[in-house]
Amino acid sequence: MLARDLISTVPVLHPMDSGARALRLMNEYHLTQLPMVLENKYLAMVEEDDILDLEDPDTLLENMEYNGVKPAIPEDAHFYEALKVFSDQKLSALPVITRENEYLGIVTRDILLAVLAQYNGVKEPGGILSLEIEPRDYSLSEIARIAESNDVILLSVNTITNPVTGRLEVLLKTNRQELSSLVATFERFKYYVIKYTITAEEEEDTLKKNYDLLMNYISI
After folding, report:
1. pTM score, two decimals?
2. Alpha-carbon separation of residue 27 from 24, 31, 107 (angstroms)
3. Residues 144 and 107 in one domain
4. Where do the CBS domain residues begin and end (predicted)?
């Protein structure tokens, strides 16, 4: 999914808008940043904290000082790239622009999180299995083959490197609640370490509830 597929229609700010108006819009749309746009050109990202620091909230945005950082993402960028920018710059909204710097809209944090959850099968029923393995032993094709041999479909596969041990954690989201046979198969391969499994149906319900609570919190 590309950035242009995630665009939200949120009002933009104009250089002649006041800080007070910017705050009202941010509060209304539950954001801490909004883009300032003039003649369809993206000028700057207006920060809530900068407005709160103003002595006069009616100060025009064009008279504010900006740090020169203009976070944005091209319309044809993958949403993983948007996720990286969100994480690196602690954003609540990210402008989407053309190669000519024309403003198209924004991607919001809650939309990005919802898409990420969709791609990772968070809302789909099924158990979770976490493996630990040396990077040299990692083989996605073998992991998939082992899963298929146990009639298990992998809905998503994610990896992260432990900065202390250098080992990979491989997180498998599956379509099956019962994973004992899959765990037993992995355990026969000595280089796979089972860190944990989440297979009980009530625990799956807890995950869904936690996800829904998180989404509701973000929307507040």
Report:
1. 0.73
2. 5, 7, 17
3. no
4. 64-124
